[in-house]
Amino acid sequence: MKKSKTKQDKLLSRRMFIGRAAAGTTLLAMAPVYNLLAKDFTEVIPWPANSDAYKFHMIGHAHIDPVWLWPWTEGVSIVHSTFQAALDRMNERDDFCFISSSAQFYHWVAQNDPEMMKKIKKRVDEGRWNIVGGWWVEPDVNIPGGEAMVRQGLYGQLTFQHLFGRRAKVAFNPDSFGHTGTLPQILKKQGMDHYIFMRPGPHEKMLPADLFWWEGADGTKVLTYRIQQSYNDTRMTGERIKKVVEYATEQPMKSLMYYYGAGDHGGGATKENIKSIEELKVEKGAPQMVYSTPERYFDEINNDKILDLPIVKDDLQHHAPGCYSVESAIKKGNRQSEAALITAEKVVTIGSHGWGAHYPKEELTTAWQRVLFLQFHDSMAGTSLVEHSETAKEGYGFALDTANQAAYLAIQKLEWQIASEDPESEYLVVFNPHAWEVKGNIEYDFNWNEQHNGSRVEDENGNPLQHQWTAGSTETGSRKKLIIKASVPAMGYRQIRLHDGDSGMKKTGVKAEENRIENEFYRLSFSSNGTLSIFDKETGKEIFEGGQAGCKAVIIDDPSDTWSHGVETFDKEIGHFSRADIKILENGLVRATTRVTTSYGNSTLSIDWSLSAGSRKIEAKVTLDWHERLKMLKFSFPVDVESPVPTYETSYGHIIREANGDEDPGQRWIDLAGHKGEQTCGLTVFNDAKYGYSVHGNDMRVSVVRSAVYAHHRPRVLDMNTEHSWMDQGIQTFKMMLLPHSGTWKENQVARTAEEFMAPALSIYQGIHDGSLPKSASLLSVDNPDVIVTAVKKSENGEDTIIRLVETSGSTVSATLDMKFINRKWTGNFGPFEIKTLRINKKGTIKEVNLLEEEV
């Protein structure tokens, strides 16, 4: 037993060394590792025993960060010079091979240097220049949503096909800071059966081997390789390879990949690299070394019928967990842009069939590609320059404007074709971008002065709709906000009419008074420190342990760098927001709202809490004016349940994690459920801008903000006597929604609620005119609440219609899609988390296709 333990300790030690050697991001960040390795360079270390039993595929590579410690314009130049260097090495040696990812890079070259592109294509055709990755860039793969990950491959692979007549077979993302467990299915359906990554390293996540089958949440498997040491090596390669050989004795394979070449700021394989490789080849006891590519490596592995590789069923975390929560503007811009583009595509696609709307394909593609570029890992993670953050805001503004112009102009064309006959009335047309009926509040500012004889709001059949008036967005004139409680048909529209008259409404159960709001279902009360109590009237129980303990704004001591290297949890509490000022903002028949304002240090937090009549959703608009440094803000929700189980939404899926306090990435919602007595119950928290979460026991937390310094990387120590560029200072806004539930989150249709939360119905003001279209219609619907229609768009090639559906509960289900806008129906069976993409031609023929919109 003692000997076995010693062997395990040695293995762990080697893994820690390899992992830490790979942890640096640039020469500056790798300085401690290089200093350590430099001692090895002064003495000749013999090859470990049996080294000659191993084979190394030597991969010439240049990791290129198009943005990081430099602006994107410098990144364009780095790409050009790096590609030229690779061509030079190929001219010098007939056997030299090179790899590069990122369709964006090749797109730049094709635009700026067509002659270079011809030379690259020649080398690609020879098999010496290997295109890897298949994506638009090497993105963060925790923060982008599922549809964005689909578009990374769609635009990336089609660009490679256009430029080279071929596509990437190997997905390649070594520098991303973690990898969501839903990726295997997405990769496979983008034509890639293999994946290469480096982070998390062995010191961050123990894996049974560095070559393994990665099994996704849906059961799809891709053969996956974790890079040892680093994706960069600018020095003589010998000593590092010896370290990898020593480590490889515990691996199931005898064939490995070794990456060499200058990177981050580009550069590629150096002459010194190649010289050292040639010298190593003839050393006694050395392993076999061949210039190679990832494609050749995986071909060799796939042909080894004896090799028995382990299966990993998990996401690949954790590296740099501070990246989930730093640089709030980029995180919010990404979430908002993704939702706006998806909504716009749905509206204009349906509209192009239903009422002749224009489909701006080129503009939408360009907007998507801009968002995809900004998902590059150092951009999306918020670890780049402050100057890039300004560029990112411009990019998201462009994407949002493109999406909103497309969507609203399409609905405007719809509005012009619906009659609105009464010049004494005001009209809205409201469009629902979801494939099920949506019920909720619709808001619009009208000119409505005191001369009107009351107000009556009706649907297209004259039925009265509950409504209330509240303060508008301007203090000038008689414009004020109308809040209407209404439903809108599935992926369709409804006309709403406002005119003088009796409202036809009855008094409801929503009201606000002093520090309390309540409706039929809940009573919310607020403490003097601004924390929240939710009393469930149906169960007679509090949602939070301790009563008024919900949404506590907790301050965490956070001296870590921008990435939070070496951090697993943020748990050192040093204070909280307090001294609440409570003010009632709305108190009507539809909605009641109370503003709770608190402070901490130099910062102010204001949350507008709202309850609506007949609704179980608790809404919150958050305004944070943040002026703290080296601190973190988390919202705490101590859900009063036993045996708590946290569930995080991921990109086109969800994952259950341990309630151990670790900082974890998630998408739009997190849920904590357990038992109260014999009853299953819990709480789901939604937000429209945040990605970092943690759960310790029954305390579920949303990470709101971190105040690090821009691009501060350990071991650099901050001199607090000098000036620094501090992140996330000033005012930021976002929305939250709380959904207490009996039963499980699945039974409460949380997936649908998240869609409605991020993409509310769109409203257009109508003028007075004739029209021939019906005043209400449903144009597309799906009958199973576990199946979400996530995309409706035109095909990238041709004019066919693409519809994407995703199973969201992790169950085996059947669903029927009713495409009224083309008079077609389709029924299909879904496995857990399965993504299905349909392609419908002009004749109405429906075919299932992959994520590249091609028949399987």
From TrEMBL:
The protein's matches in InterPro entries, at most eight in alphabetical order, are given as: Gal_mutarotase_sf_dom, GH38_C, Glyco_hydro/deAcase_b/a-brl, Glyco_hydro_38_C, Glyco_hydro_38_cen, Glyco_hydro_38_cen_sf, Glyco_hydro_38_N, Glyco_hydro_38_N_sf
Name its species: Draconibacterium aestuarii
Q: What is the lineage of its organism?
A: Bacteria, Pseudomonadati, Bacteroidota, Bacteroidia, Marinilabiliales
Listed GO biological process terms:
mannose metabolic process; oligosaccharide catabolic process
Which keywords label this protein? Glycosidase, Hydrolase, Metal-binding
The name under which this protein is listed is Glycoside hydrolase family 38 central domain-containing protein
PANTHER family in alphabetical order: ALPHA-MANNOSIDASE 2C1
Name the family.
Belongs to the glycosyl hydrolase 38 family.
Domain of life from the UniProt record: Bacteria
Location of the Glycoside hydrolase family 38 central domain = 319-396
Kindly give the Pfam families that the UniProt entry links to this protein.
Answer: Alpha-mann_mid (PF09261), Glyco_hydro38C2 (PF17677), Glyco_hydro_38C (PF07748), Glyco_hydro_38N (PF01074)
Q: Which PROSITE patterns match?
A: TAT
Coiled-coil blocks? none
Q: Which GO terms describe its molecular function?
A: alpha-mannosidase activity; carbohydrate binding; metal ion binding
